[in-house]
Amino acid sequence: MVKVFERAGYPIVHMCNLIPVSTTVGANRMVPTISIPYPLGDPNTPEEEQWKLRYHRVGVALDALATPIEEQTAFKVKI
Amino acid sequence: MAKKVIYYVNQFFGGIGGEDTADFEPEIREGQVGPAMAANAALEDAEVTHTIICGDNFMGSNTQEALDRIEKMLEGKEMDLFIAGPAFQAGRYGVACGNVCKMVGEKFGVPTLTSMNVENPGVDMFKGYTRMMSGHNAAAQMRKDMAAMMAVANKMLRGEELGTPEEEGMFHSGRRIEKFLEYTRENTAAYRGVQMLIKKIKGEPYQTELEIPERDVVPIAEPIADLSKANIAMVTTGGIVPVDNPDRIQSASATRWGRYNVAGLDKLPNREANGYKTIHAGFDPAAADACPDVIMPIDAMRAYEKEGKIGKLHDYFYSTVGTGTTESEAARMAEEIIPYLQEDGVDAIILTST
């Protein structure tokens, strides 16, 4: 899906847990998530912490959309 | 009773003429013309009842019209299999064969078969829509390509299960076919997997059961110049849907997708609140049912919209299920979503996967 959207001209970020799979399939902009069942917020942590993580990683994804890249790139996250 | 096959050829193989007759308009003839004769001779319990001939240029420049006309010609005709080509490395002919096979499969639900060379642009365009033999590059190899194609045609007409694409000399269609093995220890996935792992560790050759198709690289899209003016759309393969799953998206091997309006929502209401849940069969849904934003982060996107970091969050999010879903189905679904993005002037996309 990512590739079809990108081929249509849309910059796209793939937020996923398995970055190597995304790389193999051919996504160009990637941001890692923390797990498969809860990519953006661990239910075993307080809600505030989940929100911080989600807000941060989505922010990284948005910045990635505005970042020029030369090759497939997995953007770094801080939390 | 003998089964019926209808055949498609271009102006050259239809005996109309060469390049100067490539504008030849589609025509249907009773019986067999050109390669259809050889096909007819090779068919075991079937006959080629009709041959359709169409010029490559006519098909190339008036594709829809040509396909519509051919569709009309085929209406009401009995057919158990539709065959086109072989097209070798002839680009326009290969694309024509692909187009016609795709149309016949979609409109009539009849199995189709063609043959072309790996270099033919028709391969990548249509291998997901028809059975396609991996053929030679020139018509001098007609005999070989025809024999290979007719062996598969006879199997298809007998209703016999085809082997792997490698065994049959076909291109991978990108579709997965379920196969039930005898219930023995050696046939369990665990046993097969461990055997493969042992071979790998020993450095022996082994054959994977899940081949990842060769990488096809997409040129990197230009970044957004100004995020604060951008309209961003959200897509997920994590199966987030309204609790009643109105589009009946499948929990695995999905072929359907949905779009759900989130205008004005600051957060996705959860399952308990009769809002959204996940129908994805590949993981424990508890976390996403309790807080759908962990997969479809509408809350974070809305916050960035309010802060002015982005211009706008597109009013809909798009959802399907990624587990077991083939690349060809996923690509088709994305193609179907694109017009909605264009309509609203979306500038960029975030796609979340589980």
What is the structure about, briefly put?
The complex is a heterodimer of chains A (79) and B (354). Chain A has 79 residues and is of the alpha/beta class. Chain A is built from 3 helices and 3 strands, in the order αβαβαβ.
Topology:
The complex is a heterodimer of chains A (79) and B (354).
Chain A: H1 2-7, E1 12-16, H2 19-25, E2 29-32, H3 47-65, E3 73-74
Parallel strand pairs in A: 1-2, 2-3
Chain B: E1 3-10, E2 27-30, H1 35-42, E3 46-54, H2 56-61, H3 63-74, E4 81-84, H4 91-108, E5 112-117, H5 121-126, E6 131-135, H6 142-158, H7 165-168, H8 189-202, E7 231-236, E8 240-242, E9 258-261, E10 276-278, H9 286-290, H10 298-307, E11 312-319, H11 327-343, E12 348-352
Parallel strand pairs in B: 1-3, 1-4, 4-5, 5-6, 7-11, 7-12
Antiparallel strand pairs in B: 2-3, 8-10, 9-11
Give a verbal description of the structure.
The complex is a heterodimer of chains A (79) and B (354). By secondary structure, chain A is an alpha/beta fold. Chain A has one domain (2-74). Chain A is 41% helix and 14% strand. Chain A has three helices and three strands, in the order αβαβαβ. The longest helix of chain A has 19 residues, at 47-65. Chain A starts with a helix and ends in a 5-residue tail after the last strand. The relative contact order of chain A is 0.20. The mean pLDDT of chain A is 94. Chain B has 354 residues and is α/β, with parallel strands linked by helices. Chain B folds into three domains: 3-168, Rossmann fold (3-Layer(aba) Sandwich), CATH 3.40.50; 180-211, no CATH class; 227-352, no CATH class. Chain B is built from eleven helices and twelve strands. Chain B has helices spanning 35-42, 56-61, 63-74, 91-108, 121-126, 142-158, 165-168, 189-202, 286-290, 298-307, 327-343, and strands at residues 3-10, 27-30, 46-54, 81-84, 112-117, 131-135, 231-236, 240-242, 258-261, 276-278, 312-319, 348-352. The radius of gyration of chain B is 25 Å and the shape is globular. The model of chain B has no long low-confidence stretch (mean pLDDT 94). Classes of the chains: A alpha/beta (79), B alpha/beta (354). At the A-B interface, helix 1, strand 1, helix 2 and helix 3 of A face helix 9, helix 10, helix 11 and strand 12 of B.
